[in-house]
Task: structure prediction
Amino acid sequence: MQLILESLFNGVAIGSVLLVAALGLAIVFGLMGVINLAHGELMMLGAYSTYITQLIFKQVSFLKPFYDSYVIVAIGIAFLVSGTVGILLERTVIRRLYGSPLETLLATWGVSLILQQFVRSVPLAYGSGLVIALFFGLFAPLFISDDLLQGAKGKLIRASTWGFSALLGVATGGILSSLVSKLSRASARNVDVTAPSWMRGGIDFVGITFPKTRLLIILITLISVLVVIFFLDKTAWGMRIRAVTQNRPMSDCLGISTETVDIITFGIGSGLAGVAGVAVSLLGSVGPNVGGNYIVGCFMVVVLGGVGNLLGTMLASFSIGIMTDLIGAGRLLTIWPEMPSPLYSTIDFFATTSMARVMIFALIVIFLQFRPTGMFPQKGRMVES
Amino acid sequence: MNIFSTKKSWINLTIWVVIIALIIATPSFLPVFRLNLLGRYLSLAIVALGVDLIWGFTGMLSLGQGIFFALGGYCAAMFLQLNSSGEFPNGIPEFFGLYGVEKLPFFWEPFKSSIFTLISIWLLPAIIAGLLGYLVFRNRIKGVYFSILTQAALLVFFNFFNGQQKLINGTNGLKTDVTQLFGQMVGSEIMQRWFFWISAIFVILAWFFARWIVRDRFGNILIGIRDDEPRVRFTGYNPVIFKTIIFSIAGGLAGISGALYTVQSGIVSPQFMTVPFSIEMVIWVAVGGRGTLLGAILGAVFINYAKSLVSEALPASWMFIQGGLFILVVTALPEGVLGWIKKGGLRKLLFLIGINKKLETYPSLEINEQGEVKS
Result:
């Protein structure tokens, strides 16, 4: 009993990292049919944001008393950072490629290469300065009234907001690099995020210790999922997003600005990748390649769960998580030692984390033989569906 | 009919003579290091041809060609290891001793035979590709789904090969450069020269083979599948068979390519199955021009050559350049360089710089604001 509970907990913990990472991917894929191969790198940006936030809280004197709460601040910052980069990506690259998903795949892969190398060869301080400049440059026009943005004067105002944001970015970069010496030099080395004191250790419950970091990650995932469900189900923009997911041309005809919907969705999806990055940074060290370790799991979740269905995404990530733990940690063997010997030796052969992936992939391919479009396929009357 | 009767045939013949002369002469003026690199890139052109067949002609973007590439490499490497491990304990390759393996795993047994190896280098990847492809295509999984599945498959194979120390030496891979073939070290200068020639010949053979495939009705159906698969199905063809066959052919080509690459790079390891390498194969084709066979070959050779030159000079910048290349080629140059030239891109460029005059297809009419034609 205890074993089963422990295994279940571990499975849910692995699954919740997968879920928060795959959530953004699945929403964007459902809406635009675009698989974002740079999703892992957006997670990486989120993880680095956590690291930078932590350093700032450590070094800046007036923030020091609040050091313990940096994780919560980091979640917000990571969301904004990844969301900003995501929106920029949508505006500059992906927008040109709607209707050709394979090309998008290649282009986003290119973006992921650039982001990886960017983190390696640009000092983190100036990198964050650049993100801040982008953030204000992209969002400032939203707060200026439309009348001012018309005509030749409008162009001048737009240009000046970009100039102002650029100055702000340079200033932030300079201040950060002088304040926090660790951020002033570029490095390809992995960095570590230390958890605040209240997150260390575990909680004992019916004889099992639940590590607090894992519990926090489950909590983060739970909140993200609830917020996303609330947003999609209860708000006006959520409704528009669902409408465009179901039928883009018809929504367009009915006066929904699909372009804005795309921007919002991509921003939220990328922002969720950032939140996933916070979770990832709490589990291990952070490096330029950190996203790659999780991205394939996310793909499997999307393939297994079906398109544009939150329930499918959730079920798929938890079942993959639990399977990974059951097979990969060899827990199935301890739970059920008297299973028939050929089965025992087969499962024993797959009892490492990497081999568990092999097994799960095989199971997914078998599953797809029966349900080719995932657990909860989208129903439609097109030839293709 | 005399095939040399037309002017075009003469041009063709001259081109071929030049190419063959170049292939024969290259080793004499290129230092052995560069020659080896060029040989490797030529062998990569074969896998690029396969990618072109499935992506450029059939519209299936596989991000997992590394699987078949590495399988071919492993076949070749194991054959070489088995045939030069007589003096090691138990007469099996040295690395087995590290993990306490005393008997050769049964599935390596046939690889002692050279004929079996030469066949399995292309047949084994082709069979696995066909099997995987059939299971996927049967369910009409395509587009992005197919791409992610192949990528996941690639990672799975990577994990499998990485984890199996006792069977295939895991992460370390199999070395070939210190093995013997025909009484010569595989890594020696003479052997490398021969491998260069063999690679060059195989590129030409693979090109002829691919051209033969795409020229006939079979090729037309492939293009039909690329452009409108449901319509092909409604016309009475079964796309599954065609997709499986072409995917399996591409797998076989990847296997040959991997074997040639392995003997020239001196090692095969799970690194051949990493995600970036397999996606790079796609970009060679994309830059060269998908749907043009020559483009795949030129793309593979030139991009790899550029990669090695840039990485030698500015190691950090290659990732930026490569990333930029991915974005540029899909947004600005979707047909690739060769496709762009075929569509008259060169003439447009010359016109832009002002060298050429714009061709006038019909007299242009000037219209005034009232919509009347000015005289």
The radius of gyration of chain B is 24 Å. Chain B has a mean pLDDT of 83.
